[in-house]
Write a structure and sequence with these properties.
Chain lengths: 175, 251
Amino acid sequence: MNQAMREEMVALLPRLRRFAYGLTGNIADGDDLLQSACLRALDRAEQWRPGTRLDSWLYRILQNLWIDQMRSGRRREIAIDEEAMAAIPGGDQAREMEAKLELAAARREIAKLPAEQRAVLLLVSVEGASYKDAAEILEIPIGTVMSRLSRARLTLGQALEDQGGAGTERMGARS
Amino acid sequence: MTMDRNSNRETAAPGEGSGGSRFWDEAMLVAYVDGELDAAGSRRLEALLAQDPEAQAKVALMRRSAEAVKSAYDAALTEPLPPGLAALIRTGDDVEGRLSAREKLVELRRHRPAPARQARGWRSMRLAASLLLLGLGFASGLAWRDMGTQPSLKLAGAANDPAAQLFETTLTKLLEQGATGDSESYSDPAHNIAGRITLLGVFVAHGGFSCREFHHDRSIGGASPTAESGFACRRIGGGWEVMTMPAPASG
């Protein structure tokens, strides 16, 4: 692995980390996954084909590692962080609080999605991958990307819709 | 809900229609929302959408979820990265640098903030990591058995121990060919030996070591069955380093 590739990989870390966070549901587990993925990438650097996209290759390694972990039973259930709950600002920052609660609700609902829908959703709607990129990363046909994504987006949209003004309601439920 | 409509149509393509009288399907709608349709397709769909409240509602849900998801994980962008990770990638690893890279890995693991609750599986992963670090770095002769592909590299004593031999042969085969979750049983009725090995996760340790965790049940000579956990790490030159320990009581 040459130095330019290493630097590019370092520059990609925040995005890879965000993807890992989304897959596992919390930052700590996501960081574990990220580190394992980086080690694996360093280990297999010679398998990356120059001229292809490094980010797609790294996303794929991370995703495959996560699937391995799920299959081996390490990741049967995903632990969702309540980071937004802990970080509620006081006083008049109600709007910001509501936004954070909204994000926490989104994370909770995403965590309930089937794993393969979650991966597609994260790549396209969080990481900004095109359908074609997502298909390449996940090594599935583009039609599969679309059907998984449409289901994920409808389920999630419906769940958030059902919760309506979840912000205040959730605040009351907080103990 | 019409969502089930597509459940067996994993390969739906845009513009294919839904097979019914409808002009849209959900895959097409999401592609429209995400700007993945070409301009002509988009315009056509838009015109039709105007007359279809059901499709409009779906489009609204898809937009809403895209919006909700977009920045849900941005904390990962702003919080400081795990300490040492970037440095590890920059300095990398090679055969000479193995020990120092391992030390860096230890550092990484040590500095991670330890959350109060953690999935059990990951603790065993960390245990594996620390064992590897100790085992490979300092005590390679002690608990580690050399399972090179050449018979002459086999563990001393294994040649006279049919149970160990069977175990090693079966494990090597499984490691080379099996996927996570695969099991392989072995038995030798003449010596009253039976066992079963299951491949668990994959674990990547530094320095060219790609490792696999496995579970091993066996009984020898009619004694009550014993369970062990083990790790097998691929060696750079070929073959496997293997370590086993009694399985945790929790299984």
